[in-house]
Amino acid sequence: MFNRRLFLTTAFAALAAPYAWAQHADLEPGAAEAMNDERPRRYMMEDLYGNAVTNEDFQGRFLLVYFGYTGCPDVCPTSLSTMADALELLGEDADKLTPVFVTVDPEQDTAKLLQEYLAFFDKRIVGLRGPKAYTDHMVKVFNARYQKNISDPARPDLYTMDHTASMAFLDPAGMLIKRYPHGVAAEDMAADMRSIMAVEGGNG
């Protein structure tokens, strides 16, 4: 594993030039929402090749879902680096898992930009985007949050997005198993997911 975090801190300055760079705020769900939500997730989005994607397309596979955006200055690159490192550490067990990145900024995050962005981390990460209404629905059913912040009304194109920074780990039926908080070590996350997948099974 190479030092993605150091490399990406510099690389994404070019990709995210239209954005303002400001303090990121972590909008996590409350404890009850985070751990006691026992509903399967139902949603419809679009992949980076224009295909409609629903929760049913992931049936039978574990999911690791992260909400973010390409203009995120630090939290998203760090989290996606952790995700990519965990995939490498899982080895063959990663075949049971689909890692997913959902943009909360479809206005700026085009399919092409997302393809370039995710390629820096791991080509196995599935990118999803959709109209605001679809994005809002998916965010809601995952008990995640996001908020657009415009610091200068005269420059509405310069903004940041506060958003939930944890990763949601789902079982093959689409039920939430747990959330991994921002800052978790890839080694710890990979070991935990391997243990859970060994017990609960799942189709590769």
UniProtKB/TrEMBL annotation:
Keywords per UniProt: Copper, Disulfide bond, Metal-binding, Signal
InterPro entries: SCO1/SenC (IPR003782), TAT_signal (IPR006311), Thioredoxin-like_sf (IPR036249)
Signal peptide limits: 1-22
UniProt-listed CDD domains: SCO (cd02968)
Pfam family, one: SCO1-SenC
Molecular functions (GO terms): metal ion binding
UniProt binding sites for Cu cation: 72, 76, 163
Disulfides per UniProt: 72-76
PROSITE patterns linked to this entry: TAT
Record family assignment: Belongs to the SCO1/2 family.
Name under which the protein is recorded: SCO family protein
Organism the protein comes from: Thalassobius vesicularis
